[in-house]
Amino acid sequence: MSRRAGLALLALAMARAPLAGAEDPLEAVPPPSALDGKDCAVLAALDFTEAVGAAVKVVAAPVAADAEGPARCRVTATVAPETGVEVWLPVDGWNGKLFVAGCYGLCGSIRTDQFADAAARGYATATTDGGHSDARYPDSRWALDNTALEDDFGHRAVHVSALLARALVEAYYGDAAAHAYFRGCSTGGRQALVAATRYPEDFDGIIAGAPFHPLLSVPHMIWADRANTGPDGKPLLRARELGLLQRAVLAACDGADGLADGIVGDPEGCAFDPAALACGPDADAESCLAPAQVAAARAIYQGPVDGAGRSLAPGAARGGEGTWAAQLIGRDGRPPFFRTVGQNWMRYHAFEPDPAQPGPLVFDFDRDPARLAPAAARAGFTTDLEAFAARDGRLIAWHGWADESLQPAHTLQWWRDALAANGGAADVARFARLFMLPGVQHCGGGPGAGDVDWLAALEGWVERDEAPDMLVAWRTKDSTPATTRPPRFPPVGEVVLKRPLFPYPAVARYRGEGDALDPASWAPALPAAPASPPASPAPPPAPPRTEVTP
Ligand SMILES: [Ca+2]
User: Fold this and answer.
1) Are 404 and 481 in contact (CB under 8 A)?
2) What CATH number has the domain spanning 3-212+392-498?
């Protein structure tokens, strides 16, 4: 903090000093909670350049309690060149901590709806627009030949917003945040891993949901789109075939977790081959796959390979095929999502310099993967968690097994690499854990239970050393993906599913009796046959705290 800001704070602190006696002439000075407007306005006069390491423009104004949140000092700020930040400082009932929310997709807007559950718990809350204010999606024209904005989107926006939010908290309350937490999903999940590996001092605890992987996610999208495009340019696997695949996968693998409930508990142990649906002489044409359709499905499960057959990224998990339509076929007359997102990424993000020609781009799986590294480094994270562990940070990563947009296997690949790079599973389990959510789509939704109180789990781990050996996931009638609205806790609406989660690689197995909605009816088990074994064996998970002896 600058000297000027420090002096302003000193003046503020003196005005707030406790009053000794009834005769004190300052008795009329109201307590801090009643000063809201004045307290808040002071923030705009402070200089945060030193705290953030860049020029900062701050606007601060009190906002009365409303449907969005509590009475607050609302700060909107711009960190040069143009990173937007919004911070809410609750007037009353601050819990002494800071919560920062990540953004989604290509960012470009401030999503204060992501504050809801944290603000209700008394957190000071903050988020960023990811470094630019163009929210057209998926269209990154803001990034054309603009590596400064790509750096902001890639890694800097979350860092500077964390620094600014910490400084604002200190200025407003006169105390530093006792703990700072980050939660993000999708691009926010990527930002979470960027924070853990590149800015390990920024947060005490980090929740990384369904992260985007700069070197893996888009190559898979392009590969899957190409695999599913026939010679006539039309999709090979349509809604009918995706439904066939989904039903066949469930028939083959749903029951392996002990309960046939429409959810594959252990997709890595599911070896379903689409050839099982191949049309034969006796097959009903409505319920079988033509050879080109079998090949397309196999390619999507396999993931991209180069011309020599070397894997470039693992492919799609089995069990969520029925939700792939928007990604592979397109909806409402729009082209497949994988194609539009893949084209945009290649046009504006994947290469340096950006390709000169606009319009459709052709990705070469032999030549182009090696060209991705420089640009991916801007948006990328590493597997180095040493500094984060050394500062006693805690990381909870998660991914839905039925994620239709970003592949769970990519997060598993990162996780295995991170275990190998950080001393193995037993060492890493002391500060980082991964949870895989059966039947859960991208950042939530789907047939599985995707509402998890990640923030409460992180608080327990950071503040009370309660490592998350088991978590409970809900699905309610009103559950929506976190991209739409973060869940509220306790869950709002009728709970239709409730399942325990155990740290990967353990899976939840139904005990065979008891209420399937009761987590105690499920036990942790090691997966039967992982498709590719972890780099080092993980310790067996602790039994669930709610375990009952039959
Ligand atoms: Ca099942």
Assistant:
1) no
2) 3.40.50.1820
The DSSP string of 463-487 is HH----S-EEEEEETT---TTT---
| Ligand 1 centroid to residue 374 C-alpha, Å | 42
Burial 165-182 (b: 16+ CB within 10 A, else e): bbbbbbbbbeeebebbbb
Given a contact cutoff of 8 angstroms between Cβ atoms, the answer to whether 386 and 429 are in contact is: no
Note the pLDDT tens digit of each residue in 193-225.
Answer: 999 999 999 999 999 999 999 999 999 999 999
What are the φ/ψ torsions at residue 25 (nearest 5 degrees)? Answer: -65, -20
Residue 97 parent element (H or E) = strand 97-101
Going from the Cα of 510 to the center of ligand 1, the distance in angstroms, rounded, reads 9
Residue 261 CA to ligand 1 centre (angstroms)? 5
Supply the mean pLDDT for the chain: 89
Calculate how far, in angstroms, residue 415's C-alpha sits from the geometric centre of ligand 1: 24
pLDDT attached to residue 529: 59
Tokens representing residue 375 in the block: 């640009």
Assign 87 to helix, strand or coil: strand
Distance of alpha carbon 270 from alpha carbon 318, whole angstroms: 7
Domain residue limits, the chain:
3-212+392-498, 217-371
Mean predicted confidence (pLDDT) in 313-323 = 97
Torsion, CA 33, CA 39, CA 41, CA 42, rounded to 10: -170
How are beta strands 522-525 and 507-510 bridged, if at all? Answer: antiparallel
Q: How far is the CA of 259 from the centre of ligand 1 (A)?
A: 5
Residue 458 CA to residue 123 CA, distance in Å, equals 14
Give CA–CA dist 373/375, Å, rounded. Answer: 6
Centre of ligand 1 to C-alpha 406, Å, is: 22
Q: Are 472 and 518 in contact (CB under 8 A)?
A: no
Q: How far apart are CA 267 and CA 272, in angstroms?
A: 10
Query: Are the beta carbons of 443 and 186 closer than 8 angstroms?
Result: yes
Q: What single DSSP character describes residue 331?
A: S
**AA letter at 535:** A
